[in-house]
Here is the input.
Amino acid sequence: YTWNRQLMNVVQTDFYFWGHRIKLPGELILKNFPTFFYGVGPTTPSTSKERYDPWELSIRTGLLWRTWDQLYIGPALRFANYTTGNPRDGGLLDTGERAGSHGARFFGAGLRMDWDRRDKVFYPLKGSLTQVEVLGFLKVLGSTSDFLAANIEHRHFFHTWREQVIAIQAMANLGAGRVPFQAMQKLGGPFMMRGYYSGRFRDVNHVAVQAEYRIPIWWRLGANVFGGVAQVFSQVRDFDWESIKIAGGLGLRLALDRIQRVNLRVDFAFCGYGCGDDPFNFYIAVREAF
Here is the structure.
């Protein structure tokens, strides 16, 4: 809960059963988080910003079976319901031209694959994590429109010297069909492309890469240097190389739990193209960005 009367409840967990042969991933989100919408596309001007007050209820789950090593595969489900509150009169959302302008509901089913070879979940020194999820959202299942979504992500961690780590994350979020703007991929936020406001740019497709160098300093203190590039686009042929987004920054870390390597992080980040009057942002959170 924030001073701006923003409310966000997020529960994320992974349950394992039958000697880690079965994995049950879960996520529950309930939030009323007044936010800004800038339109859709990689070049929306900062002057197009308008506020709206959405309510969101989102549930993700699945049932994954371990097939080999730490590779889990199985069905995945997602349900979400959004309202748009009171969009600005005459604004981008008030016209109703954008899918989801007057709220959206979608229910999707598909497949998910997790391959987790990290030595630790919270602060890996080595190993990798690969996740792939493909979902179909259909009106016959209760969605307000038909569309497809595919999310591909890979993280790799290289142990360099003592407990110093080079961490790399790459992701591609792809869609097709009449995608509501709430389900479009948002660029920015506290995890990927730190420095950009989450949703400053959004579109049907999103690709991003970031790297981070993690350095223990003394006692429970550490530091990070990070940077990334990303872009959103409607179709591959519309990819705009000239408006590629670049972000980076520095971070400080305080170890809250040395055994599990759980850190309190403070990141100071900057952003490039399209930042407008807010080129710098800072974030305070528990656990690493990835």
The chain has no helices and 18 strands. The chain has a mean pLDDT of 93. The two ends are 23 Å apart (CA to CA). The first strand starts at residue 7 and ends at 17.
